[in-house]
Every structure is written in C-alpha cells, then in structure tokens.
Design a protein that fits this description.
Layout lengths: L34 H10 L4 H17 L13 H10 L6 E7 L5 E8 L7 E10 L4 E4 L3 E2 L17 E2 L2 H14 L17 E4 L9 H11 L12 E5 L3 H11 L2 E5 L5 H7 L8 H9 L10 E7 L7 H10 L5 E7 L13 H13 L30 H13 L1
Parallel strand pairs: 4-7, 7-8, 8-9, 9-10, 10-11
Antiparallel strand pairs: 1-2, 2-3, 3-4, 5-6
The structure holds iron/sulfur cluster (SF4).
Length: about 400
C-alpha cells in the first residue's frame, strides 16, 4: 500500500531546467507502441516473422514491466537485436524538467515534449502524484493546454497547443515510476507499488484526444506490463457526449463527469461545452455507459463555488437529476489560482451540501485539497507553453462550441 511516509528513496527534487537548453530527441521512442506496432518495428529491422512474437514479449516485459531505460539493460534480448534497436530507437520518456514536492507529499512534474511541427521547439505538460494511506494516484494530462475554457480551471486559460501521443501519455506513468523508484525488480515485490491508480484529470479533455488516450490506457492496463487494472483508472470528461459510449466500449475504464452545475444556464457558463451537449443529453449518455453498475459507479465531480452552485436547492436538483444512475458525487473545494474569479464555498456550506446528498443515498466525499502550495490541486495545472488573453479565451470558447 502506498503511504506518504512509505515513499521509497525517490530521486531528489529538480530545479527547473531552462527552456533554452531543450534538445529535441534524435530518435523515436518505442514507448506507447502496441504489441502489433512493436512487431512491425522489429520486422523493419529484419527480425523474422516467426521470432517477432517472442521478441515482442521480451520487449514488452522490459519496457512496461521492468521500466528499462536503455536497450543495454534487456539482458534476455539477443545482443544483435539490442544493437539494431538502439541504432534506430530509444525507450526515452518525456524529459522531466522540474519537480516540486508539496508539504503534504504530493509531487508535481513538469515534462518537456517536442512540438508537433517545429521539432526545435518544446511544449510542456504537468502530471501530479498524490500519495494517500490506501493508494497512490497519478493525475495524467492528455493535451498541451485545452480548448474548453471551463471558467474555474487554470488549464483553461492556456491555448490548446496539441494533443499528446499515446507514448507521451504512457510516458507520464513511466516518469512517475522512475522518479518514485516504483518499478518491479528483485527488491520491489508486486503488490507493493506506489502508483496504484490513474486519473485522466490533468491538462486537457481526454475525449477530444480519443485514439491516443485509448491506446495509452490499453497499454497501462495490460497485466503483463504496467498492470494497473481498469477499475483503478478513471477517465474524466467535461461531457463530450458522442465519445462517452466509445470510452466504455473501447477502453472500459471508470468514468467521471465534470458536472459542476445542475442548471444549463449556469453550466453553460462554468463548462461552456454544455452549450453543445446540455445536461439532459450528458446524463442520458451516463445512463447508457457500458458497464456502469452499483459496483462500478460513475463519479460526478462538483467544484464548490461560493454563492454560485452551492445552495441546498442545487443539492436537491442534483439528487433529482442523478436518479437511476449508479453514481457517487465528489465535492471539490475550489482551488484558487492567480486571477480566478471565484471563491471556495464556506466549509459549513460544503458540509451541509454533502450531508444532503449523502442522506439521499449517494456517497459524497469532499476531496481534500492536495498540493495546493505547489499549484498541483484540481483545476490548478498549467504550464507556461501558451497563455491566452481574455479575448482569445472568448474566441476559443466560441470555437469549442462549433467543433
Ligand atoms: S476543467 Fe478540464 S476540460 Fe475544462 S478547461 Fe480545465 S482541463 Fe479543459
């Protein structure tokens, strides 16, 4: 079990490495490739087809189970194959350029990635590790920036720069295991991992980068590799209705909905995507979510904004709306960020809201803010890649509605 005190001898924190020192990768990384794609790469190197399945198994084990950082470490792979692989590929992860450690043990990593078109330029994303007594959760990003501009979210003030690749998504989990010394090896028996849960709740809207997120999560949940069960992976969406069903069918992970308001008028303002997919449509998609049951409840996230969405009338309507959906409600005290227009609800009001929802039969935990001192809490993530002016944000909101 992961505990704050139980962190192994993780590497020491990193000061931010300046952007000017960025060196783009010289060779592509194999991280993020499926078994079929790995077999194809081996074929290109001249590995005969009859050997490919066995070689793929070996690579899979070394890359995703052992966390090998070079082909040299892969002692069960023939020397010739290792040399041929190293000439064309790497097993590099995204570059970690800064690490901050909160006084509650939360860790935030700033990762540098090549720009999609101009390889000399770099982009940055963040990912956050949150240790708790019974689990260790990694909050993973799916895009550099975000198009959706939710009013309470710091990431939403950043322009969408590009989608992450499957490799860059899987790479975040690998970076966390590297930095926490959390790979399976002789000293680390299975079942004693620090990163036990994944939430796709970092920067970006995962369902607007569907294919890469699906491919990455299928790798992460493969039990011969990273091996994090689909029940321990939660995909959070602000409500991209057409892709919700696909997520259930093609990925099969737990679903979370960033709800935050129970009336369309307010949700249009807080989560502008609501103008395209209003509450009734969103909740119907949840009712139809493949695999939802009392054992696999859908989480509804609800950020508590003082005087905006935190009245008992809101709580009553919330309970009414969720009728018939196997649901739990996650109340999130608003985490302020520089320039935000909202305040967090008073603690007393959060408790009253939570009690009402709980008495109506729904689990309604209040999420303890984690890593606030390093701006790693919910809705606070943001890299310096691209900032938006207020005018640009408005234009983007309009664009998001017409996508
Ligand atoms: S809450 Fe999520 S979808 Fe909304 S702006 Fe922030 S990152 Fe984007």
């Amino acid at each position: 079990m992961a505990t704050t005190a139980g962190l192994r001898d993780a590497a020491a924190p990193l000061e931010k490495i300046p952007l000017e020192t960025y060196v783009p990768p010289a060779k592509p990384s194999l991280i993020g490739l499926s078994r079929a794609e790995l077999a194809a790469r081996l074929g290109e190197l001249g590995v005969p087809e009859r050997q490919q399945k066995m070689r793929v198994q070996q690579l899979w084990h070394w890359i995703y189970f052992r966390g090998a950082q070079s082909f040299d470490e892969m002692s069960s792979v023939s020397k010739d194959t290792r040399t041929a692989l190293a000439a064309r590929f790497t097993v590099d992860r995204p570059e970690v350029v800064a690490e901050q450690i909160s006084n509650d043990g939360t860790r935030k990593w700033l990762l540098r990635l090549p720009s999609g078109d101009d390889l000399q330029k770099a982009h940055e994303v963040e990912c956050v590790y949150i240790p708790e007594t019974d689990r260790g959760t990694l909050c993973v990003s799916s895009q550099v920036g975000c198009t959706l501009n939710c009013a309470f979210c710091h990431t939403g003030t950043q322009r969408l720069v590009r989608n992450l690749t499957a490799g860059e998504i899987v790479g975040q989990i690998m970076v966390a295991r590297d930095r926490l010394n959390d790979w399976a090896d002789r000293e680390t028996p299975l079942g004693n991992r620090l990163v036990t849960n994944i939430v796709m709740m970092g920067m970006g809207e995962p369902l607007y980068n569907f294919d890469a997120v699906r491919d990455a999560l299928l790798i992460v949940s493969d039990n011969e590799g990273i091996g994090i069960s689909r029940r321990r992976i939660t995909l959070s969406t602000s409500g991209v209705v057409p892709n919700i069903k696909r997520a259930g069918e093609e990925i099969g992970v737990m679903l979370a909905i960033s709800l935050h308001a129970v009336r369309d008028e307010l949700r249009n303002e807080l989560v502008p995507l609501n103008r395209k997919y209003p509450i009734a449509e969103l909740l119907q998609a949840c009712r139809d979510y493949p695999g939802a049951s009392n054992a696999r409840r859908i989480t509804f996230e609800y950020v508590m904004l003082k005087g905006v969405n935190d009245s008992l009338d809101d709580a009553r309507l919330l309970v009414k709306l969720l009728k018939g959906i196997p649901a739990k409600i996650n109340l999130i005290p608003f985490n302020p960020w520089p320039g935000s227009a909202y305040e967090c609800s008073d603690w007393e009001q959060i408790e009253k809201f939570s009690e009402y929802v709980f008495n109506a039969g729904y689990s309604s935990p209040v999420r303890t803010p984690r890593g606030r001192d390093i701006l790693a809490a919910c809705g606070q993530l943001k890299s310096e890649t691209e900032k938006l002016s207020a005018r640009e944000r408005q234009a983007l909101r309009a664009m998001a509605m017409t996508d």
